[in-house]
Write a structure and sequence with these properties.
Layout: E1 8-12, H1 16-28, E2 32-36, H2 39-48, E3 53-57, H3 65-75, E4 80-85, H4 90-98, E5 103-106, H5 111-141, H6 152-164, E6 171-174, H7 181-190, E7 199-203, H8 209-217, H9 234-237, E8 242-246, H10 253-265, E9 267-268, E10 277-278, E11 282-287, H11 291-297, H12 302-308, E12 311-314, H13 325-339, H14 349-357, H15 363-377, H16 390-397, H17 413-431, H18 436-442, H19 447-457
Parallel strand pairs: 1-2, 1-3, 3-4, 4-5, 6-11, 6-12, 7-8, 8-11
Antiparallel strand pairs: 9-10
Length: about 450
């Protein structure tokens, strides 16, 4: 924001000539100015109206400038206050700044200096307003009501989240890739008491091992080759807020030891330093690995696992929450039609059924990517089976004869889906000559997933 941009300014000065001159000057540069020579009237105006900047004389006949500053900070904390005095006093200036004044200027006023101070104050109010707006957007985005999932499995997740948002307990989010573990972590943070503090996400598996320690814990200048300056780590950056450690199962053993110490002591030590930095950080971690199995294999420390697993949250895969597929599809259709500036697209029943039949090994992330591709490639506003990925359209076609329509008599959806799965698995096994690995490949599944399905369906292994 530049000085040419308009601001709403309250001007308070008991010297009438100075008040009139400053009012004319500020108005001539495009600002809206309310002027008064009374501190009491100024306090009343602050209570009734909203000002970007308050410029007040330090010495008023009915009000001390510092007292008016305090009232302004209480009533209108987003207003920036600039104090003016004819009596230069370092002690008074320090006191004013401690009480929250933006700046301090001495009479006779240097007009250019005042313009610069006003410009800086406006820039600060703009940044603060943007920050407040962005935080509000984040809070609204991650409200529980905005996380789509009416299935019983997701209701259990929401219930657990609501119980822990106001605690500082360490949380471990478990679930397959693409189930929305970071979305849940952010929802816990932005709905809790730390919502106005930092949320710092670290994807442990995406950072090279030789850089990960520095990223997490920071380093001092000269502590290793390339350390040309001090660097704070992610834990320090998240202080008073939340740190989200994604893919925690990939953490190397030597860093598991250091992380355990950080969790136990609530302090961090930068590489190359002996200084302990106290922390107040909530830790939320996530993994798609079975950490208990990794503990048994010796790949993950048992004591660290227990430290992380204070409150476990298990996110169900999309194939176990079929009733959430249609609401998710509609949400992503609206999202991508809006971003691609397309009119609302029609999704016919057969396309919905085909999407609901798919196994979704990539979970919600795969579903979102599929809908984005459909919106980008479909001509017109009516989606057909031909617009779906080939494997989904073919799979739907192979289920002809099975009851896939809901009538007034109702339908046993779990039974119908099971029958469809059994039919397709049987066909795949027949084509593959009974070789499960080949059958799994035909169905775009992992072999272990196929075996799990066969066991669940009661099919002969």
């Amino acid at each position: 924001m530049t000085v040419k941009e308009q601001a709403k300014i309250l001007l308070v000065d008991d010297e009438q000539s100075s008040l009139e001159a400053l009012t004319l000057l500020l108005k001539s540069t495009g600002h809206t100015v309310s002027a008064t020579s009374s501190g009491g009237e100024a306090a009343s105006l602050i209570g009734r109206d909203s000002f970007d900047i308050i410029i007040t004389d330090l010495f008023l006949p009915d009000f001390d400038g510092i007292e008016l500053l305090k009232k302004a900070r209480d009533i209108s904390p987003r207003s920036e206050v600039i104090l003016i005095t004819g009596h230069a006093s370092a002690q008074t200036a320090v006191k004013a700044m401690k009480e929250g004044a933006f700046d301090y200027i001495v009479k006779p006023i240097n007009i250019e200096e005042l313009r610069i101070i006003i410009a800086k104050a406006l820039e600060k109010t703009r940044l603060v307003s943007e920050n407040v707006y962005l935080k509000k957007q984040l809070r609204e985005k991650y409200e529980f009501s905005n996380i789509i999932g009416s299935s019983p499995a997701m209701q259990k997740v929401f219930s657990r989240m609501k119980k822990i948002i106001n605690t500082d307990s360490t949380v471990l989010i478990l679930g397959e890739s693409g189930t929305g573990k970071e979305v849940v972590a952010r929802a816990i943070h932005f709905n809790g008491p730390r919502k106005d503090k930092p949320f710092v996400a670290v994807h442990c598996g995406a950072i090279p091992e030789n850089l990960l320690e520095s990223e997490l814990f920071g380093h001092t200048k000269g502590s290793f080759t390339g350390a040309i300056r001090d660097k704070i780590g992610k834990f320090e950056a998240a202080n008073q807020g939340t740190i989200f450690l994604d893919e925690i199962g990939t953490l190397p053993m030597h860093l598991q030891i250091k992380l355990l110490r950080v969790l136990q002591e609530q302090e961090v030590e930068r590489i190359g330093s002996n200084k302990q930095i106290k922390l107040d950080v909530r830790v939320i971690s996530a993994t798609n690995a079975n950490l208990e199995e990794e503990v048994k294999k010796g790949n993950f420390r048992e004591d660290l696992f227990y430290r992380l697993n204070v409150i476990p949250i298990l996110l169900p895969p999309l194939r176990e929450r079929l009733e959430d597929i249609l609401p998710l599809v509609r949400h992503f259709l609206e999202k991508y039609c809006r971003s691609m500036k397309r009119t609302k697209m029609v999704l016919p029943k057969e396309a919905i059924e085909a999407l609901e039949m798919h196994d979704w090994p990539g979970n919600v992330r795969e579903l979102e990517n599929t809908v984005e591709r459909i919106v980008a490639l479909t001509e017109g506003d009516h989606i057909t089976l031909d617009d779906l990925p080939t494997n989904m359209a073919k799979a739907y076609g192979s289920t002809a004869g099975l009851p896939t329509r809901v009538t007034t008599a109702g339908i046993d959806l779990p039974k119908t889906v099971s029958e469809i799965e059994m039919k397709m698995i049987s066909e795949a096994l027949e084509i593959a000559g009974g070789v499960k690995a080949k059958a799994a490949a035909l169905l775009n599944l992992n072999r272990t997933t196929l075996v799990e399905k066969m066991r669940r369906l009661g099919m002969s292994l």
